[in-house]
Design a protein that fits this description.
39% of the residues lie in helices and 24% in strands. It is built from 10 helices and 12 strands. It has a single domain (7-280), classed as LigB-like (Protocatechuate 4,5-dioxygenase, Chain B). The protein has helices at residues 21-34, 54-66, 109-122, 136-139, 142-148, 165-179, 198-213, 217-226, 234-246, 261-264, and strands spanning 7-8, 43-49, 75-81, 90-93, 97-100, 103-106, 128-130, 154-160, 184-189, 194-196, 251-259, 270-280. By secondary structure, it is an alpha/beta fold. α1 packs across α2 (54-66), α1 crosses α5 (142-148) and α6 (165-179) packs across α9. The strands form 2 sheets. Strands 2, 3, 4, 7, 8, 9, 10, 11 and 12 form a 9-stranded mixed sheet that branches. A 3-stranded mixed sheet has the order 1-5-6.
Length: 282
């Protein structure tokens, strides 16, 4: 896991979201301010948020990140899928920081090394570090974190290429061990069904969001395998659910659902987006 160029340059700024720092902050702040969420009780352990271009999924993402608006964390773990082909099951950044138009987010190299060591000791898994990747699903969450959270925090970036329940369990339990004594937030990045008619997508997304509300990592993966629900980040969501359960989570709430059709006007082929919060209630 040798490091290369310090900052991972953003391949999506100016395309998936504004390349202007001021406009981007205004955009994200607006999504968060307009989000209408219920009262949140107890400790927030994790969020589930979508990862399309802000034009499409920013409104839904705002609901997830509004739950942590003004809060402070030392570490944020963002777990996403990896959409391109790669032989590795688990990937991370070979850089020391992520760059967005808002600023630099330093990677917690100690936590990353700890995760890599734990995976090697407990299983045949390891982290594969890649440089200058084009993966959007992890980066797209970062401006929301930069705008929602107070103070500085470090980042643990993890891209899960596997949809294996065993891999998700091992990763989730390792993440829980790493963050259990820290002020930390977990974020699972996923979109839902892809390119179904609106009424079909609604049913598929309902199934997947119910599995998340049920705190069922196995259910998330089974829904994906059976075709009853879809999430491109099913492996990432399952890992975060396993971690959350190990940290004492006992409640999850779906906060918002939308589709791309609401932005494009094309309801014949839509992508679904969902936002949820995972909590430990007294």
């Amino acid at each position: 896991m040798s490091k290369v160029r310090k900052q991972r340059p953003s391949p999506i700024a100016g395309l998936w979201y504004s390349g202007s720092s001021q406009r981007l902050q205004q955009q994200v702040d607006t999504y968060i301010e307009k989000a209408d969420i219920p009262d949140i009780e107890g400790e927030i352990i994790a969020l589930v948020a979508p990862h399309a271009g802000f034009r499409y999924s920013g409104r839904t993402a705002g609901h997830a990140f509004k739950t942590v608006k003004g809060r402070s964390y030392d570490l944020v773990v963002v777990v996403s899928p990896f959409h391109s082909y790669h032989s590795a099951q688990l990937l991370t950044s070979a850089h020391r920081a992520y760059a967005t138009p808002i600023g630099e987010l330093a990677i917690d190299e100690e936590a990353l090394q700890m995760l890599d060591q734990m995976l090697k000791e407990d299983s045949d898994l390891c982290l594969t570090a890649i440089a200058e990747d084009g993966e959007h699903s992890l980066e797209i969450e970062l401006p929301f974190l930069q705008c929602a959270l107070e103070g500085e925090f470090k980042l643990l970036p993890l891209m899960v290429h596997s949809h294996s329940e065993q891999v998700a369990r091992v990763v989730g339990e390792a993440l829980a061990e790493i963050v259990k004594d820290r002020s930390a937030l977990l974020v699972a990045s996923t979109d839902l069904s892809h390119f179904y008619a609106e009424e079909v997508a609604a049913g598929l997304d309902r199934v997947m969001l119910q599995e998340i509300e049920d705190l069922s990592p196995g259910g998330v993966l089974q829904a994906e395998r059976s075709g009853k629900g879809f999430a491109c980040g099913a492996g990432a969501v399952a890992a975060v659910l396993f971690a959350s359960l190990a940290l004492g989570a006992n409640s999850a709430q779906v906060l918002h659902h939308s589709t791309s059709g609401e932005e494009t006007g094309d309801y014949n082929s839509v992508v679904g987006y969902g936002a949820a919060v995972i909590q430990k209630k007294p």
